[in-house]
Amino acid sequence: MRALQTVVLLTVLLLAACARTDLGAPCHVEDAQGAELSPQPGRQYLYLGSSECGSFSCLATTGSTTGYCSQACAGAGASCPAGLTCQQLAINDQYLEAVKPRLSPAQYQQMFGQLDSTWYCVKPH
């Protein structure tokens, strides 16, 4: 009986360690009205609230032709799953400050409330 318990426990731990992730999977970057954006060369796009991604973060970085699921990471040197690397995004704080008075507090929270970090898991170029 003890051996069976050990086998079951090891099986459960193995399955948990191999949990699937959607990081790096394709997703659609959308604007505030819900229209899909086509990534422009030299720009980064971060769509927070994407229902296509488990982390609700859809990211399009320089060199990508479409968005992909990402998640916040801990900073320089932090690890990311699925072959992604932790990099700091170029978030324009002046833009955030300029747009904040134009939106209601609820709208601002909906659009930017999940922006807890400027470090995200990105695909290497």
What's the short story on this structure?
The protein is of the alpha+beta class. It contains three helices and six strands, in the order αβββββααβ. It starts with a helix and ends with a strand.
Any overview of this molecule?
The chain has 125 residues and is of the alpha+beta class. The chain has one domain (22-122). The protein has three helices and six strands. The protein has helices spanning 2-17, 93-99, 105-112; strands at residues 26-27, 45-48, 57-60, 67-70, 85-88, 119-122. It has a four-stranded antiparallel sheet, with no helix packed on it. Strand 3 (57-60) and strand 4 (67-70) form a beta hairpin. The protein is globular and about 40 Å long. The model is unreliable at 3-19 (pLDDT under 50).
Q: In angstroms, what is the radius of gyration?
A: 18 Å
Distance between the termini: 52 Å
Mean pLDDT: 80
Count of individual helical segments: 3
Shape: globular
SSE class: alpha+beta
Question: What is the ordering of alpha helices and beta strands?
Answer: HEEEEEHHE
Summarize the main sheet: 4 strands, antiparallel
Number of domains as seen in the coordinates: 1
Instruction: Please tally the β strands and state the result.
Output: 6
Q: Strands across the major sheet, in which order? A: 1-4-3-2
Q: Helical proportion? A: 10-25%
Beta-strand content: 15-25%
Low-confidence stretches: 3-19
